[in-house]
Write a structure and sequence with these properties.
It is a single chain. The longest helix has 38 residues. The chain has 3 helices and no strands. The protein is rod-shaped. The mean pLDDT is 78. 3% of the residues are buried. By secondary structure, it is mainly α.
Length: 119
């Protein structure tokens, strides 16, 4: 029974019933949202850490490959071997580069790599 109009409550015939039903509906969604946001923080952190580890490992592999190519390029320069120089320069240029955000560069797993190249 509706406390205002003393009729059987359907939820839409008076302002009180409408307000109560809307509030209950809103609270259900708010509690559901809080449940999903608040409960899985550790799982999200683990997932995020795994993704960071994969990205940094791939970046390290690419940088190590670059170092190998740079060694070959320097050897080709020392020996005046233009064919080897051209080959390894093309390979060096085809190594994928990953744009690493600055905050990940502070991670202990980040590999700086690099070497100066004169050409």
């Amino acid at each position: 029974m509706c406390p205002i109009c003393n009729e059987k409550c359907t939820g839409s015939h008076c302002w009180l019933c409408s307000t109560i039903n809307y509030t209950i509906y809103s609270m259900k969604w708010a509690l559901l949202l809080l449940f999903f946001v608040g409960c899985n923080n550790a799982e999200y952190q683990d997932f995020h850490d795994e993704q960071v580890a994969k990205i940094l490992a791939e970046d390290r592999d690419n940088k190590e490959l670059e170092l190998i190519y740079l060694e070959e390029i320097m050897t080709a320069q020392e020996n005046n071997d233009t064919e080897a120089f051209d080959f390894y320069m093309k390979e060096y240029m085809n190594v994928p580069r990953i744009k690493i955000p600055e905050y990940l560069k502070k991670d202990k797993r980040y590999f700086i790599g690099g070497r100066s190249l004169k050409y």
